[in-house]
Amino acid sequence: MSVRNLNLLHPRDQIIMIINRIYKKGLTTTSGGNISIMDESGDMWVTPSGVDKGSLKPGDIMCVKADGEIIGPHKPSMEYPFHKAIYVERPDLKSVVHAHPPALVAFSIVRQIPNTNVIPQVKSVCGPIGYAKYHIPGSNQLGNSISEQFKNGFDSVIMENHGAVVGGKNVIKAYERFETLEFACRTLINSNIIGEPKFLTEEQIYSFNNQVPTDYPKMSNVVYTSDEKGIRHEIKDMVRRACDQGLMMSTYGTISVRWKGNDFLITPTDATRWDIQESDIVQVKDGKCEADKVPSRSTWLHQKIYEMHPEINAIILTQPEYLMAYGVTHKKLDVRTIPESWIFLQDMANVPFGSHFAQNNLLPELISKDNPGVIIENDSVLMTGNNLLQAFDRLEVAEFSAKSLVMGTSLGSFEPMSDNEIDELRKTFC
């Protein structure tokens, strides 16, 4: 949903939309967590206390008026005082999200702050992370501890032995920050299972943010043919499927599909992935894009791959959490786990951070029939296919393989398929 459309949605409906997403993604329990929105009149809308988060209705959302009057059929969340304290210290924030997702809780109970320099997008979305000392839930002391961190400029705060709380300029931005922070924590935990995470320097993050082209040549005339419209629908559906499957997040993920020749359609930048519409998709023709739209920051890379590889008709660039454990540790993913993994992938090369920077031809030259996917260290996973379904299937297989390897680490040493077994697969399927 765009921010413009969000502004026309009542705060209680905004809260229901986000709490449903949080609950369905397994980021909160039936009784845990709370969301609030501060409206333009100074009234705070907040989730109720003791009501099933999986079945909340708009009428359940409580309103705490600016004068302290409470309106609604329930009690407001017992922790609404710390929401109020945050808004007092940070009037620029209009929404607060708090819950107890497993990875964030893991960091809170070992009393550590996740390093957001693990992936550039995590750093840009979450920023530095604050830390609030433990106090009784609902107490003034807890409110003071948390609000002090927000007063110091943090937008994301780990709550000692409790969970996390984040703020945003609207409820979508708060949710995106919350989801991204949990993703970062899961990536770091999985990385520690298979190795040791490597972090980016401030200089590397600065270089990434400043090398991305933003001024794309614009078309003067755009033609929307029937087949072009069909591709838009295909991309929209696959983005939502990727979000549902945990292969893409609200804040990151790019899909493109070749249209004709080297022209293609691609997802936009800075758009909430789970609500992308056909009209958001950007047409790129003869190196130019639609006016009034900003295509993915990786558009140049997609263009180069399509120019160099006529057999490739779809590209996905995203951040699945188990594959990213390999990207963050710089360890190679060995796809010789089960026959399907090798048949679909054959190889998954790692390339250094920076290989995806504009005008670097390493990735387009590396991609091939035998190497359809690449792990970009500390950034993302790139997968290709002769159509979008094949690219998505390969991505799923790669993520399942990575997940099995991470899980298998606790059981013993990985025993890959033998060279003879791989030769038999090669003779049979290649």
Automatic annotation (TrEMBL):
**Class II aldolase/adducin N-terminal domain: from which residue to which, for each copy?**
13-189, 233-406
The keyword Heme belongs to this UniProt entry's keyword annotation: no
Which terms are listed as keywords in the entry? Lyase, Metal-binding
GO CC annotations, alphabetized: cytosol
Q: Name one GO molecular function term.
A: metal ion binding
Recorded coiled-coil stretches: none
Q: Which Gene3D superfamilies match?
A: Class II aldolase/adducin N-terminal domain (3.40.225.10)
Source species, domain of life: Bacteria
GO biological process: one example = pentose catabolic process
Pfam families recorded = Aldolase_II (PF00596)
* Stated name of the protein: Class II aldolase/adducin family protein
The organism of origin for this protein:
Carboxylicivirga sediminis
